[in-house]
Design goal:
heterodimer, A: mainly alpha, MetI-like fold, 2 domains, 14 helices, 4 strands, 72% helix, B: two-stranded antiparallel ribbon
Chain lengths: 278, 291
């Protein structure tokens, strides 16, 4: 490969990074401005930050409970989807079952549904059908964990399938010959080998669940409301509280950032739906 | 060979959950799509009207328009993302100081919630407070108002999508480029092939599955996008950015045409599944052949 002038590279990457980072930077800038300054001439460089919005958001007990809900729902959902997806992929990759490829494709069709119109059936099902006496699934964390499976479980299955297909069947067979039970083979032989794939799936499903908005906005009122819905509550008819909104956005972004940073390195292989054999 | 029963047991929880939260609501939507229904009206009764909704949809200019803008949006966004993503992926194939940091920076937009992306772009482009219209006006004398100008709104949405999703394309293409064997390239260079020839005849065919996979994911998600667009333009001005996802949303919530909204959903879901299935069967499945 030809030697390139390093200056060009630096300029190129600085430009790309600037364009990538600017909206995020701007979000932060808006979050540290008092309302009156928002409408004056925009300043590119931050001077004299105002932390009032942060105090306001952090001091809001409601928002803190939303944040807790978000953590519980996305973690519960990501763990559930990754484990169930792993089991499903093990079945799909190891057994000769009739119609399994159709099942595989069918799972992803659950992710394709236009969300708006499915809100009402889900609402009705959760209030009337999935209910025991007074108790029903609406506005519960467990309900949201299950609802999020409709888009995260197919995703988990599609990202884990290549990982499982990549593990030689001879390994399972050898373990069976040694007298291990099916459960032991799955949990103690295959599961540890899938760890990188599982980690990527766990994180991505977590981020998707964390970021979901439409379903959470409709299927929760109070008890299971998430942080993203808190955001929209500041867009009101009397005017939008831009600063507070930006602050909540920053609060929503930080956990996702931390979680994502943990698996940055492994993520490349996990995003290709098996189109790449690497 | 292990018993098939175990296979079904392992698959069962997935099938059960997807049945109760995916299939049942879907059947309900199909059922409603044959009715005229406004559940929020004074008289929320479902009236069976046969295939009327389906007949109406074929001649519905608003729906056809939304399909049109969606196709345009998907085309412009995905093509720009592929080109930009490829350039960036190639650039990441070289070694340079600070590569890891730049890659992390470049991946950041991916983890942002669509609704936040929508609000950030709204903050940047809303005429009274946005920085982009402000400087466009101050430096170039261009007036940009996404609230009134259809091309500006459409372009902003495409730009937002490119900003949000190019990193995904870059990552997918990096994965593909990394796994390419070096031999064909060395051979081609020995045979005196030019850069362009190498790209068209070797690189592109070899990364085609990854490109198709990316298009598959983006197509699937772009067809159901609501959050970002709703936040940024609400489908406007007029119907310039009224993509199918937004169109259904508007039909169901502000207009409360639940029956008709369901019909549109069924049709859109059908179109999505068919196009994704075709992509999958013709391009993806044969290359990842499983025995």
């Amino acid at each position: 490969m030809k030697k390139q002038n390093p200056i060009i590279g630096i300029v190129f990457w600085s430009l790309v990074s600037f364009l990538t980072l600017f909206p995020i930077y701007w979000l932060f800038v808006i979050s540290v401005k008092p309302v009156v300054q928002l409408f004056s001439t925009p300043e590119l460089i931050l001077t004299d930050p105002y932390w009032g919005n942060y105090a306001k958001v952090w001091g809001d007990r409601l928002l803190r409970s939303y944040m807790l809900n978000s953590v519980i729902i996305s973690t519960g959902n990501a763990v559930l989807c990754t484990i169930l997806g792993f089991f499903a992929c093990y079945a799909l990759s190891r057994f000769k079952m009739s119609g399994k490829e159709s099942i595989f494709f069918w799972t992803i069709t659950n992710r394709m549904a236009p969300p708006a119109v499915f809100l009402l059936p889900l609402f009705l099902l959760m209030t009337q059908v999935y209910a025991v006496g007074e108790w029903n699934l609406l506005d519960t964390r467990i309900g949201m964990i299950l609802v999020y499976c409709t888009f995260n479980l197919p995703f988990a299955i599609w990202t884990l399938r290549p990982t499982l297909d990549g593990i030689p069947k001879e390994l399972d067979e050898a373990a069976y010959v040694d007298g291990a039970s099916s459960w032991k083979v799955i949990t103690e032989v295959v599961f540890p080998l899938c760890r990188p794939g599982l980690a990527v799936t766990l994180i991505l499903t977590w981020v998707f669940a964390w970021n979901e908005y439409l379903l959470a906005a409709t299927l929760t009122n109070f008890n299971a409301r998430t942080l993203t819905t808190g955001l929209s509550e500041y867009v009101t008819t009397t005017g939008t509280e831009w600063g507070v909104m930006a602050t909540i956005s920053v609060f929503t972004l930080i956990p996702a950032l931390i979680v994502f940073g943990l698996v940055q390195k492994h993520i490349v292989a996990g995003l290709t739906f098996g189109a790449v054999k690497g | 060979m292990q018993s098939k029963r175990l296979g079904w047991i392992l698959l069962a929880p997935t099938l059960v959950i997807l049945f109760f939260f995916g299939v049942l609501p879907f059947f309900y939507v199909v059922f409603v799509s044959f009715h005229s229904w406004n559940p929020f009206a004074v008289n929320p009764e479902m009236v069976f009207n046969g295939a009327d909704n389906f007949r109406q949809i074929v001649f519905d200019p608003a729906f056809l328009h939304s399909i049109g803008v969606t196709v345009m949006f998907v085309f412009f966004a995905v093509v720009s993302e592929l080109i930009l993503g490829y350039i960036l992926a190639q650039a990441f194939m070289r070694d340079f100081p600070g590569k890891a940091i730049f890659r992390t920076i470049h991946t950041l937009p991916l983890i942002m919630a669509p609704i936040i992306v929508g609000s950030v772009w709204k903050l940047m482009t809303t005429p009274s407070i946005g920085i982009i219209p402000h400087y466009l006006d101050e430096w170039f004398g261009i007036t940009m108002n996404i609230g009134t100008s259809a091309p500006a709104a459409f372009a902003t949405i495409v730009l937002m999508d490119v900003w949000h999703w190019t990193p995904l394309v870059t990552l997918t293409l990096i994965a593909a480029l990394v796994s390419l064997p070096p031999d064909p390239f060395e051979q081609a260079q020995i045979d005196g092939a030019g850069k362009r020839q190498i790209f068209w005849h070797i690189t592109l065919p070899m990364i085609a599955p990854a490109v198709v996979a990316t298009v598959f994911i983006r197509l699937m998600d772009a067809l159901r996008t609501v959050d970002e667009v709703w936040m940024l333009t609400g489908g406007g001005p007029g119907s310039a950015t009224r993509f199918v996802g937004v169109h259904i949303f508007k039909e169901v919530f502000p207009k409360t045409n639940y029956g008709y909204g369901s019909t549109i959903s069924v049709i859109v879901l059908y179109l999505t599944i068919v196009s994704c299935w075709l992509l999958y069967v013709t391009m993806l499945a044969p290359r990842t052949k499983r025995d």
